[in-house]
Each structure stands twice: as C-alpha cells, then as structure tokens.
Design brief:
Length: 65
Amino acid sequence: MTTEVQQILEELKVIKIDLNFIKKHMFDPDTIITPEEIKTYKQSMNELKEGKTTSLSQLKKELRL
C-alpha cells in the first residue's frame, strides 16, 4: 500500500472514532420541552382531572366515525 492510501485510511479511522462519539453523545431535540409546552401540559392534565375532556371513542361516536 502506498503511503498516501495509508494516510487516508488512518484519517478515516479517526473520523469513524469521532463519528461514533458524536452519535453516542447526541441529544434528541424532541426530548426538550419548552416552558410553553409545560404550561399546556399542566393545563391539559388539570382539564383531564376535572372531567373537561372527551375520550377519543366518545368523540368518534359524536362524529359518527
């Protein structure tokens, strides 16, 4: 193997190591909840506890689906 090919292979190994590190430490942006989403969630949980919600099955009956 030529020196140039060996250098390319070595660089690829380093890139692969870096890529594996990035994959392992990357976060899922969908797991972050905004203050507005927290507020909406709390409001919906209160409405559920107070019986102000409609179940999906009941909604389907009402809409004749």
